[in-house]
Design goal:
The structure holds 2 protein chains of 2 kinds. Helix content of chain A is 51%, strand content 14%. By secondary structure, chain A is an alpha+beta fold. Chain B folds into 3 domains: 106 residues, Butyryl-Coa Dehydrogenase, subunit A, domain 1; 110 residues, Butyryl-CoA Dehydrogenase, subunit A, domain 2, CATH 2.40.110; 152 residues, Butyryl-CoA Dehydrogenase, subunit A, domain 3 (Up-down Bundle), CATH 1.20.140. Classes of the chains: A alpha+beta, B alpha+beta.
């Protein structure tokens, strides 16, 4: 793959200079006096934009290895009918493995990954070994889970995000595509794409729903899919995809003519696709990028679920991805709590630990209360999804909590460390940036 | 197997409680809010019914019976009386918090007796209505600062002091009074004593006029050479440091119950507000992002999220108690979250509903008054935050005051 984004260090720096120059120019009266403001702005806009544009990854050829008569699906979860907050043995195993990996590897790699905007390959490989990207693959196609795995995904996402949210996003993003295909794909689509997610050489892949505009509503995507004979023609743009330039496969949300919002399977080699670098406030280890879709022609079979695409499946996809982001936010919120406790106990002011003061101590209590509630709300939504019960209300509630309380926790994490919280020596400033993502992201991850 | 739904076996209980709330509480809710200090006689028949509900070990009633710790059941997940009690209280307080607090034989004193009484004491005092007298004019949240004294004189204790804010103090048959055996020994010497309401040494000073829960009487007493038999002391009569912790443990069990009260009244306000908003053409959509909806819908979602958080924390604390997991931290989290959410949401609902919410034709304004006490009694918001912080930060009460 050859892209201009490979020299991102340089590119970013020149982008910085460009903006600084733009800012200075914009503030000067000169432009207005000589009446070229519009042209300068246009030029700068195009310049920075084109400077970042690159091709999508070359990508492998996906071919159906076996033929199934009908799509394979994981079974719905069962319940004893009793209220229970204990994970089952299998979930506990995933949870413990995830926690160990997060504290041994992920947390240690986080600072550098954030700076470089890149998650080390070893970390991604190890996450794959943990199985994080094949939880949604039905057993018949090489998966490991017989039952639906939203709760398991939540537990792993939470564990990894306790290490680092951006790395967790980078590591788990391909699994969103596998899970989407495993939940709603046709037999043909499953056979074509899912085997790749169970092997060692896992493709980078992205579930592309979010679009670059304010007040984005995933139920009204501006990305359009028009019918042209038996084919679809897609146009639009998708935001903040993990490792966008490496992605070999996309599942893209578009307003499909005659259907409404629906998902399309798009291989990176499709003509008309391009990637633009899209660095953001946080999630930097995920090297986020934008997917530009310019009149991309797709076969009729690209519609996820083919003739069987349903509005309720699309809604479930949106809500399952909201649950996934809640899991990451819950894990990061817990990381904040675990970090500030020893800090405020050690930090001395006025002759005693600052945690002896209620103003500090109560902030810690609130982080404890709200992070606990975020987690419970997320578990509830996920477990309802696994059992095939309605979960859109529960997902909305969890999202609301993770958006507002999660961000407050991120902010208080920095606040409790004072000036020290503002510098990169401590991870709380990173968590502050990452936690803002919980209310912004749509799609991208899936449970 | 993670599951945060109400177990099926408790649905009949919840339905029953909801019917009581709908058919008995709601119709007389306004009446006893206005007629403060008059006894809601409608509750007598209901109390017998609740007594019946309390008989079954798994199906708790309004809270007074269900606070004994469950025995560990070899790792098996258990949904028991703590959970069922919480569920019952939520439904009843969806009806009316003040009336729940006025339920005969369901007082906090009953909880204390049920939790620590000996078999002998249960025989003597069982089946009676017991209120709890802890607070004094100079000792609120700081229970260890209690000034009331108890002196042993032959076979009797002689109690002296002043007690305020005694819920159901006028109506109850018994008052559980906290007093010190030796004020120089601090909290270790604080014990609770069962005093019969008609004891001549127990003098009713007055009944309070209140912001909310006006159906519930709140009494102030003076104890003047109030003599009780030696056997009226609850728990261990010896003065030792752990003793007070034992007394306070009662509150680990009752905090989730108060949290449940707040959850109930919060749900009532949200349900009514949802109806009112619908009349005004605003419906809440859970799929569309909150910021793409009407501002009132977005606000509602935010309040509903806080409600759900409080509800889940309350169920968590009760579930832990049912499974013999130490839950002091979670009990305080539930109480703190539910207490403040109750106030925020009921007041927010009044605001959203405008004059409909503020006026007395609906119950919204009443719920917004009733909810405030739930963030105060059984440990204020601030006390809960202290308890939580001390546990999270591993601090003593001397370090974090």
């Amino acid at each position: 793959m050859s892209t201009t984004t490979e020299n991102k260090g340089v590119a970013e720096r020149s982008m910085g200079y460009g903006l600084r120059a733009l800012n200075r120019l914009a503030g000067s009266d000169l432009l207005d006096r000589i009446r070229i403001r519009k042209q300068v702005e246009q030029a700068l806009f195009q310049g920075t934009k084109n400077g970042f544009k690159g091709a999508t990854a070359a990508g492998r050829t996906f071919k159906a290895a076996q033929k199934l008569g009908k799509p394979a699906r994981q079974k719905k979860g069962k319940s004893t009918g009793l209220f229970d907050l204990s994970p089952d043995d299998e979930q506990q195993m995933f949870q413990e493995a995830g926690r160990a990996f997060a504290s041994d590897q992920v947390r240690k790699a986080a600072l550098e990954a954030d700076e470089k905007r890149e998650t080390p390959k070893e970390i991604l490989d190890q996450a794959n070994e943990l199985g994080v990207n094949m939880l949604g693959v039905p057993e018949e196609l090489g998966g490991v889970m017989t039952e639906q795995s939203a709760v398991t995904s939540v537990l792993i996402g939470e564990a990894l995000a306790h290490g680092d949210m951006g790395i967790a996003y980078a590591a788990m993003a391909p699994g969103a595509v596998a899970t989407a295909i495993g939940l709603w794909g046709s037999a043909e689509q499953e056979a074509t794409y899912l085997p790749a997610f169970t092997g060692e050489d896992l493709p980078a892949a992205a579930l592309a729903i979010l679009e670059p505009r304010p007040l984005f509503d995933p139920f009204q995507p501006e990305t359009k899919a028009k019918r042209k004979g038996d084919e679809w023609v897609l146009s639009g743009a998708k935001s903040l995809l993990a490792r966008a330039k490496d992605c070999e496969l996309f599942v893209v949300a578009a307003d499909a003519e005659g259907i409404g919002p629906a998902l399309f399977v798009v291989e990176s080699g499709a003509k008309g696709l391009s990637i633009e670098d899209e660095p953001a406030m946080g999630l930097r280890p995920a090297a986020t990028g934008r997917l530009l879709i310019d009149k991309v022609k797709l076969p009729g079979s690209a519609l996820l679920g083919e003739g069987n695409a349903k509005a309720k499946d699309y809604a479930a996809c949106v809500n399952r991805s909201r649950i996934a982001w809640c899991a990451l936010a819950s894990g990061t919120a817990q990381a904040v709590l675990d970090y500030v406790i020893p800090y405020v106990n050690d930090r001395q002011a006025f002759g005693e630990p600052i945690s002896n003061r209620q103003g500090v101590a109560f902030a810690v209590s609130d982080i404890g209360i709200e992070s606990n509630a975020m987690r419970l709300a997320t578990y509830r939504a996920a477990s309802r999804a696994d059992r095939g019960e309605s979960f859109s209300r529960e997902a909305a509630i969890a999202r609301k909590l993770c958006t507002t309380k999660g961000m407050k926790i991120g902010s208080d994490g920095v606040q409790l460390l004072g000036g020290h919280g503002f510098v990169k020596e401590h991870p709380v400033e990173r968590w502050y940036r990452d936690l803002r993502a919980a209310g912004v992201m749509e799609g991208a991850l899936l449970v | 197997m993670i599951n945060l739904e109400i177990p099926k076996k408790f649905k009949p209980l919840a339905n029953q409680a909801n019917q009581v709330a709908t058919e008995v509480f709601r119709p007389i809710s306004r009446k006893y809010d206005e007629a403060e200090h008059s006894y809601p006689k409608e509750l007598d028949m209901l109390a017998s019914l609740i007594d019946g509900m309390n008989e079954g070990s798994d199906i708790g009633g309004a809270g007074a019976a269900g606070v004994r710790r469950e025995k560990a059941a070899d790792g098996e997940n258990r949904n028991g009386s703590n959970l069922s009690t919480v569920l019952g209280i939520i439904e009843l307080c969806w009806g009316d918090v003040g009336l729940l607090l006025s339920m005969p034989r369901q007082g906090l004193g009953n909880s204390a007796i049920a939790s620590v009484a000996t078999e002998e004491q249960l025989k003597t005092y069982g089946g009676k209505w017991a209120a709890m007298a802890i607070t004094e004019p100079e000792a609120g949240s700081d229970s260890a600062a209690i000034r009331a004294t108890a002196e042993l004189d032959g076979d009797e204790y002689v109690l002296n002091g002043e007690k305020i804010f005694v819920t159901s103090g006028d109506r109850a048959d018994l008052i559980v009074v906290w007093a010190s055996l030796d004020r120089s020994k601090g909290r270790a010497a604080i014990k609770s004593f069962i005093v019969e309401r008609d004891n001549p040494g127990l003098k009713l000073d007055r009944l309070e006029h209140k912001l909310g829960i006006r159906a519930s009487d709140t009494a102030n007493f003076t104890l003047q050479d109030c003599r009780v038999p030696k056997e009226a002391l609850l728990g261990d009569p010896e003065v030792k440091e752990k003793g007070f912790a034992g007394v306070m443990e009662t509150f680990d069990n009752t905090r989730p119950l108060v949290a449940a009260m707040a959850v109930g009244v919060t749900r009532a306000a949200l349900e009514e507000t949802r109806k009112q908003l619908k009349k005004a053409g605003v419906e809440i959509d859970y799929d569309v992002p909150a910021n793409n909806q009407h501002a009132a819908a977005a606000r509602f979602l935010e309040m509903e999220a806080d409600y759900e958080a409080a509800w889940l924390l309350t169920l968590q604390a009760a579930w832990m108690a049912d499974n013999s997991k130490p839950n002091s931290l979670q009990a305080s989290m539930a109480k703190a979250k539910a207490g403040r959410t109750g106030v925020d949401v009921t007041l927010g609902c009044v605001e959203l509903c405008g004059s409909i919410g503020y006026g007395e034709n609906e119950l919204l304004e009443k719920w917004a008054r009733d909810s405030k006490i739930l963030d105060i009694f059984e440990g204020t918001q601030q006390i809960q935050l202290l308890i939580i912080a001390r546990q999270l930060l591993k601090k003593t009460s001397a370090e974090l005051r």
